[in-house]
Each structure stands twice: as C-alpha cells, then as structure tokens.
Amino acid sequence: MPRLLNRYIFTEIAVPFGLSLVILNVTALLSKVMKLIDLMVTHGMGPSFVFWFIASIMPSFLIYTIPISFLVGVLVAFTRLSSDSEITAMKAGGVSLLSMMRPVMAMAGLAGLLSLACAAYLFPWGNLNIKKLLFESAKTKLISGIEEKTFYDKFKGAVIYVDHLSGGGAKDASGVMQGVFISDTSDKGEPAVFFAKQGEFESTDSELVYLKLSDGTLHKKSAKDDAYHIAKFSSYLLELKLPEGGPSPSMFNRPNRELYPLELLQKITVLKAGGKSTRSQVMELNKRFSLPASVLVFALISVPLGIQKIRTARLTGFSVSLGVVLIYYVLSTALETLGSNGVLNPAAAVWGSNIIFTAAGLYAVYRASKDRPIVPKFLNLSGKT
Fold it and tell me: Which of 66, 67, 266, 286 could be joined to 294 by an S-S link, Cβ 3.0–4.6 Å?
C-alpha cells in the first residue's frame, strides 16, 4: 500500500510540475527572442551560437522556475485530490498526512538537488559563457565592419584605414587587408602611427583583438625626450581593444553572479583580510543555497494548503500558488533590501523568507494533521471551524 500510494502521489505531482516547468521556462525565454534575432541578423550568428546562448541562459531561469513549478505541481495535485474527496478516502483508510507528505518531500529533495546544481555551478557557468558569446559576436561585428577606403574608428583608441580587402576581407576575419594605415592613441602619452603593406586579424579568446601587420613602418613620438622615432618591421602584432571588455579570468574583476561558490568564499576571505565590505558576496553565496532550499520549504507548506477543501472554483491550485509565490517574493525582496543596506545580517536577510515560511509550513502541517483549517475564515477555503 505505501509503495502504491507513493507512486500515485508522485504521478499526480510530476505532470503539473513538468508542465509548469516547461511553460515558465518557455515564457522566460520568449523575453530573449528579440535579442537572439538581433544577434542572428545583425551579427550573422549561426545555429551553434543560438544553441549555446539558450543553454547558457537556462540556468538563470531554472533557479527560480524549479521551486515555483514544484509548488504549482504539489498544490494542483493535492487540490484535485481534495476536491475529488480522495484525501478523505485516504484518511478513512488510515493514511495519515505525514504518510502523504513522504513522497512529496522525497520529490522535493530531488528537485532541490537539481536546483542546487543550477544555482551553484550552472548559473555562474552560464553567466560567464553568455558574456563570452556576446563578446565574440561583438568582436565579429566590429571586424566585419571594416570597409575599403574608409576610416574605421570602432576600436578603442584606434582608427583604421584599409586601401583594399582581399580573400574575403575582414568580413570573416580570415581575409588579407592591403595598404593598412592605423592611428593608435590607446597610449595617451605616446600615440603611434602604423603603415603596413598587409594586415590580417588573428583569433583570440581575450578581450583584445590582435592584428598582424606585415612589411611596414611604425612612427612614434616619445613622451620622454619629445623625439620622433621611425622603425621598420617585417611583422608586428598590434593589440586592438574593443569598446567593452570581455570576461575577465580573475575572480576579483568578475561580478558575483559569475563566481562559483568556492570563488565567492575566496573573494570574501581576501576582502575581509583587506578590511573591505563583503556584504554583497555573502548575500550572493547564501542565495546559491537558499533558492534550492526553497523547494523543501514550498513542499512543506503546499501539502496542507492543497488538502484544504475549496468551496468555490475561483480558488485553484494555480491561484494559491501565485499567492504563495507573490508573498514569498515580496518578503524576500524586502529582507534582501534590508540586508543590502546593512540593517540586517546578510545571511539572515537571504534566509529570512525560508525561515518564516518553514515556521508557517510546520504550523500548517500541525493544523492540517488535526483536521483544522489553516487559514482565516474570510478566505473561504474550508467549511470547518
């Protein structure tokens, strides 16, 4: 009997959970469609870019949609079981509320682990990868914008003039530029001018674009002695900076959302040693674990809410889910604002909503196990007093 009951409840939850997860993620992804279309049309990005962009952005959705979808799944399942009097039949057969909750908490544990993997590892990986993808697309667009007999000033501190493009030109970053003139003012103290017979871009993963110049001269005025220098070269590798830099390899130059938990811990340790504030890092680190934990919290509160008999069809599992999520979001936002402003301890600010909802869930489980209503009478959830 317990195994059959567990399988039955599991199936009842799995369908609305999966459906809700798909709907929420697709809805969230639709907000990025215009960005994807722009990258495909204006930057010429192909299917591979689109695949990796979607794969990279999904973890930032999943850390929120997994807990919400699980809440919806449990509430929809138990609301249906309650409205069809199946909960009453189970209780009459000697099945307690705690027995009903066992498969729910087991599923919550699995969903929580999935959410933890997303929050701790896939979320920072995705944020880093998105920055790399967007950086590469921006780099491709900049390089492909170079035209013959036109001054091009899109690179930071440099103006490029090309007399002739051959072999595909700069469009695919593989062609050769003939008759290259470059004015480089990136070094404010010593501006330089390059003349070269040929030039071609070299691929790189850094925030710099490398332009290989062949058979040319370098003209430079020294800031020290005000002397004018001319140097000939057969090959010269010139660094060109993009207007916006790419992802930094150093964790100290990356935003918190791009750091893995261990990197956040290391950054907190170093900042503390230097006497600097670690509030934002501590809050981010705790959020990586509090969001997955919210799956267990929602499981605790959703079962007693779901088994309350609903007199009117206006209140369904979806509407109750929306109310719970709204209250949780408002509470979390308020507490995190207090934490960011230094009013609350950063860890307490992040975990506060989970603690409050856990207490409410335990209270609800206690009331429901005694067959008592768990919400005020004016909500008209139950006919019991």
Answer: 67
Q: Is residue 187 part of a domain?
A: yes
Query: Is residue 250 in some structural domain?
Result: no
Give me the domain span that covers residue 218: 155-241
Which of 136-140, 156-160, 182-186, 337-341 has the weakest average pLDDT? 136-140
Alpha helices in the chain (DSSP H): 2-30, 33-42, 47-83, 86-92, 97-117, 123-144, 261-273, 279-306, 317-340, 346-369
Contact status, residue 179 vs residue 197, Cβ threshold 8 Å: yes
151 CB neighbour count, 10 Å cutoff: 11
**222 and 177, same domain (yes or no):** yes
Of 38 and 377, more confident: 38
Tokens of 15: 């369908």
- pLDDT bin (cut points 50, 70, 90) of residue 113 is very high
Query: Percentage of the chain surpassing pLDDT 70?
Result: 86
| Domain end residue (candidates: 186, 213, 241) | 241
- Alpha-carbon Rg for the chain, nearest whole angstrom, is 30
Within a domain: 246:
no
Are 198 and 291 members of one domain? no
Q: Does one domain contain both 364 and 266?
A: yes
Residue 364 CB partners (closer than 8 Å, separation 6+): 300, 301, 304, 305, 374
Do residue 130 and residue 264 come from a single domain? Answer: yes
Mean pLDDT of the chain: 85
